[in-house]
Please model this.
Amino acid sequence: MDVVIRGRPVVPARGEGPLRRLTRPISLWGGVDPVGGVVSDPRHPEHGLSVAGTVLVIPASIGSSSSSAIMLELMRERTTPAAILIGEADAILSLGVIVGIELGYPAVPVIELDPAELADIPEGTILTVDEEGRVAHAGGG
Amino acid sequence: MDLFLPPVSGAMTLSLTSAERALLDGTQGEASAMAMRIVVAAAELLGAEELVSVASAHIDGCLHHGDGGVEFAEKLRDGGGQVAVPTTLNVGALDLIHPGVVRADPHKTDMARRQMQAYVAMGARPTFTCAPYQVGHEPRRGQHVAWGESNAIAFVNSVLGARTARYGDFLDACCALTGRAPLHGLHMDRHRRATVVVDATKVPVGLKALDVFYPVLGTWLGATVGTEVAVIDGIPLDVTRDQLKALGAAAASSGAVGLFHVAGVTPEAPTVSEAVGGPTESIPTIQVTADVLRVALDRLSTATGTPSVDAIAVGSPHFSLAEFEALAQLVANRRMRIPFYACTARDTLKALEDRGLAQPLVSAGVEMVVDTCVVVTPILPATGGVLMTNSGKFAHYGPANTGYEVVYGSLGDCVETAVSGALVRDEAMWTW
Model:
């Protein structure tokens, strides 16, 4: 397996999708529309981009604890990222995933790693992540 | 069948008592097992080494953000969930006492009502207030509790001296059902000591006597100290609970303040050095100046110049009896010419009615809103425009959540504006 980087699995699970980077921290509450999975905060640099199905790189999660509730809504709407790679893991976003798992929705892997280590990988590259926190090129040897 | 949660980071460090393991094993039913799994997962995420028993809980999970919140609450209820400790409920998305106050489609109305009722069915008190400390929920100093709602967290930690970390959606409810919380953060002595001294001794005594000072000080404090614990020196010893409530609510809106100390006033700060737990020279001191307060004051208004005011809202946190008494004196049987919303707890409204104070205010044009408030659900006229408020929290969240521009002023300014129909604002006291 062509492992690109290994991070710390905060919520261990598997996922696969195109790489999408958010260049600024985001509050899911007020920042992402759960119905469409689109960045809805007009002040965010990636406003309008979809996070659904992506291997989403976020520097950090900020703001309201209601972001847990929005994470759960994304899981219910099937608009969640395929995986979340986050510079600084926080309990709020991951707690939303854990509640979603309890309610029977597919797990979303959350892996803590330094986004700078992915800097050379082009946007849109299809990546896989696994339970051990490994990030790899999809289909790689 | 139990869903086995995958281990997360730090899993090796958390140790559980046999009673806690029994809850996980489902001896008290599936709902408390599920709640315990979530508490344990959170404890591991937070790096806690053990759980702590809590004396009470305040659940901030009644507000409808989407149907997931309903699904979660009803799953706990259907699994036989009952709160293990006395529990109050935060605001929901509906005023259940005054139907029609909130504009919502039938689906949302139904789901929002189900979400509120599911928690009541689990034994929580239907308080539906962001200020549970005003309706008889007052933990004692040193008690561990699990509270959600940022202003309530700041109040219970700072003013009452009980101990809660900053809980949010889902985790507060799971703590209520299990009676346990992750032992971390503000539950622990070492995280409660002041890490910064705020020197307010140079602020004129006359300004510090006014209610309008405290949301501004809080806005500055939150933006300046973030998550640090401040001890504020120079606040009058007769500062009121409502003033401290307003200070904490504003600080918890502009920053992530979960605890502040006021020297000579709050329980863990008989003196500045006792709040610090050592020599005050060991930590930084920040001066409160006219300049920094001016910046914070300006931040509380987004509408510029002398705009026309389309609505006025007070009561974030929810209005207390004392605040209603002050409002009644200021209104003095005059009539409001601008829609004026007063948000409060249903229990406070009942007490107001029992004292004969509600009817004169309603006759003057005050619209009573209970169980919810104007920045969490559609209540203000859909036309939009400019909202005036005396609340730092309404001023902070108003523009994003309601689409209204905001103007901040004192309660007296709000009443005079409502009665005259044009903006009245006295800002002379902010210059010295």
